[in-house]
Amino acid sequence: MFDFDQYLGFLAFLTIVTIGFWLMMFLLLFVIPYWVTGNIREMLKEKREAKRAKREA
Questions:
Q1: 3 by DSSP, 3-state: which?
Q2: Contact 10, 2 (CB under 8 A)
Q3: Which helix (H) or strand (E) holds 30?
Q4: How confident is the model at residue 43 (pLDDT cuts 50, 70, 90)?
Q5: Which residues, in sequence order, are CB contacts of 2 under 8 Å at separation 6+?
């Protein structure tokens, strides 16, 4: 069915696809929510500082 070279190529392909899948899951589950949370916190902080500066002025 498969020659040994084809079998190694298929295993390499599956390994690369699996690594890519888990890297994508890591990105979607950890990096993007971390980035979005940090961005929202910064926006709220800037709004609070703007209100504080407006009240003091």
A1: coil
A2: yes
A3: none
A4: very high
A5: 10
> How far is CA 15 from each of CA 4, 8, 18, 56, rounded to the nearest angstrom?
16, 10, 5, 60
Q: Model-level pTM?
A: 0.65
Alpha-carbon distance of 27 to 33, in angstroms, equals 9
Amino acid at 55: R
Task: Determine the Cα–Cα distance for residues 33 and 40; give it in Å rounded to an integer.
Answer: 10
- Report the b/e string of 13-34 with b at 16+ CB within 10 A: eeeeeeeeeeeeeeeeeeeeee
